[in-house]
Each structure stands twice: as structure tokens, then as C-alpha cells.
Amino acid sequence: MTSAVEAAGLRKAYGKKGDVVQALDGLSFSVRAGAMHALLGPNGAGKTTTVRILTTLSRPDEGQASVAGLDVLAQPGKVRSVIGAVSQHSGAVGLLTGAENLALQGGLYGLHGRGLRNRTAELLDAFGLADAANRQAKTYSGGMRRRLDIATVLVHRPSVLFLDEPTTGLDPQGRADLWAVLTKLAAAGTTIVVTTHYLEEADQYADRIGIVDRGKIVAEGTADDLKAALHGDSVVLELDGHDLAERAEKVLAGVPHVASAAADGALVRARVDDGPRALPSVLAGLEAGSIPVRSVTVARPSLDDVYLHYAGRSFLQAERIPV
Hints:
Elements lengths: L2 E14 L2 E14 L3 E5 L6 H8 L7 E6 L2 E2 L4 H7 E4 L11 H11 L4 H14 L15 H12 L6 E5 L7 H16 L3 E6 L2 H7 L2 E6 L2 E6 L1 H6 L4 E6 L3 H11 L5 E7 L2 E6 L2 H14 L6 E5 L3 H9 L3 H6 L3
Parallel strand pairs: 3-8, 3-9, 6-7, 7-8
Antiparallel strand pairs: 1-2, 1-4, 4-5, 9-10, 11-13, 11-14, 12-13
Helix pairs in contact: 3-4, 3-5, 5-6
């Protein structure tokens, strides 16, 4: 199986002595050609730093990386010629029209004349922007701007596309529209590496997921494989307050059939072998501890459960930790 992206032992720190942030701490992963690969993690996990290194915008302190068989450190110019990269912020020039933005990008890669005009028209049509081709980009909606950003970096037909949190700030319809575009690109053979902190996006659209925490890949696989590796069920209990949740966590540690429990705000997540069978014992234990339950849900493991298992904290807890 051919790998389009390889990262091995990447380390990167920011700051000065006494105030150092370890952004990457030995991160390694690979992406097969033609795959939609998601790097899933909370803000500050190291996803953006990883993308910056792979797109030649930053150098690691240690480690190696290659894209499309090209060494990122030794051949940065060649790497840039075969990739497209979209950051968290729009790269479109607001005063230019959609068509002019695409033409400008094409010119940077030596495209011109009829070939460039045909490619511009092709992309505007594919991304649903043909009717807005002659409007200034600053008049586009957020979803249209993101589609234009992606169309712009595809003018030179890159083999690998990197997108850093592409749906941040978009409404639900805008997110759905953008993922529809990305899915078509992947189906056509473009390798896509996308960072996201939206669990449901990675679950639904990615061929393979690398879960990033504290600068490392802590788990990797398909969404189904990652969830299936956690045997049993998840019991989520909503209580009346943080103090009750912490008490409940301690109580559940001694309840039969409960493998683990973790408090997260007013919620407690318990891992059990068999949800329906364990639920009476769980509720009885909490009642004996004078801990009222507002609601309870029993479900198969989710990606949040996967993250909790490997990182030792829930995804929401990690998001709330300042970086």
C-alpha cells in the first residue's frame, strides 16, 4: 500500500527556557494514497503544528516527514509543488472576484491562457461557485469562502490536500456542503489530510482517524475499529452538579460490572461490559450514596469514549484546558 504522507517522531517546542510549550512530542503516522485521513484532537493538541511541518511552513526540532515521496526538510520546493493547503483563515483576496482569485493562484504555478481559463471554469462549477464567479470574494458567505479557498489551492492539481479545521465557524449547512465537496475529491483520488475537533465529522467522513493528544498520536484506525476496541457499553449519567459528579465517580468505582468511571462537569461516564445488565447496579449504587440522577443514557462506545480511554480525560475536558 502506497503512503502519500509519512511522519516519524516529530517533535516541536515553542518558547524559551522556563516557558516552553511542547507542541509535538514524538508524533508519528502515515496516510495511504487516496485516503481521507483525519487528525482528531482538541485545540492545542498539536494538529496545526503537524500540518505546518508537513506543508513546509515550519521545521521540526526532531523527526522526519515526507509527502508524495518527497522529503519535507530536504525538498521543500518540490513538496509545495504537489500539495494544496488551506489554513484556518481564508486565503482568498476579498477585493478580487472568485474567478480572479483562481486565476491569481494559477499564475503563481505558471498556468496561463486557455488552460487556466478552462481550469478556473471547471473548479467554479465543481464547487458551486459559477454563479458567483464575477462577484468579489468579500461578498461570499462563510461556506462559499471556504469552498473558494479549497478551489483556489486545487488549480495546479495537487496530489495531496491539507486542510486545517476547514469547517470552523460554518453553520451546519455550510459544514455539510463542504464535506460533500471533500468527499468527492477523495473519491476522485486526492489524498486529504484534515484536522478537526468535531468528533462527528471524523466519525462520519474519515477513512482513518489519528487521535492526537499532547503532541502524540494516542490511537489510530477507522472509526468503527477504534470504537469496537472498547468492549462493552458506555453509561452516561447526568447529575445536578460538579460536586455530585465527583462523588458519583468514587461510588461507581466500587459497583460491580463498572470497569471505569470519569466525571466531566455534571456528567459521569462509566464503562461497563453490558449496559442493560449493569444499569440496575449503577443506579442502585448511586441511590445508596444519596446521589440523584437526572438522566441516564446507555450506548455503544463513541469517539469521545475512545479519547477518554486513551487520553485519560474526555474530549470536552481537554478542550477546556488552557494552552
